[in-house]
Amino acid sequence: MQEISFTPGELNDGFVVAINIEAKEDQGEAVAAILESLVEPTMAEPGVKLFLPYRSPTNPLQFFLFELYRDEKAWAEHQATKHFKEAIEELLPRSAKRERMPYVPYTSP
């Protein structure tokens, strides 16, 4: 994986998707492995700035993903990739809950 660096201004310029996932009982390790497998191919996509999965230290069934894309089109392109489709096919049956919230930079009037 290539080393990438962004300035704070560049990090605030893009399309963010915040995702909360709750794994089903006894599926935490499987969900963790699926998310881990997505990091390298997702970070190799041209429209992806960051793809960071996290796991709760207090509840091993809770996961959070911070995804930063160049723009909304790049998010759509990510969802069309083979690695995303394969991961979702494995992830959804193991998840009790999955919430995705898109965000854009806030600018004051």
From TrEMBL:
Do the record's keywords include Oxidoreductase? Answer: yes
Q: Which residues form a coiled coil?
A: none
Instruction: For this UniProt record, give its keywords in alphabetical order, as a comma-separated list.
Output: Monooxygenase, Oxidoreductase
List the Gene Ontology MF annotations in alphabetical order.
Answer: monooxygenase activity
Query: So which domain of life are we looking at?
Result: Bacteria
Q: Name one Pfam family in it.
A: ABM
Q: Which residues form the ABM domain?
A: 15-104
Q: Which PANTHER family match?
A: ABM DOMAIN-CONTAINING PROTEIN (PTHR33336:SF15), QUINOL MONOOXYGENASE YGIN-RELATED (PTHR33336)
Task: Output this protein's name.
Answer: Antibiotic biosynthesis monooxygenase
Record the organism.
Pelagibius litoralis
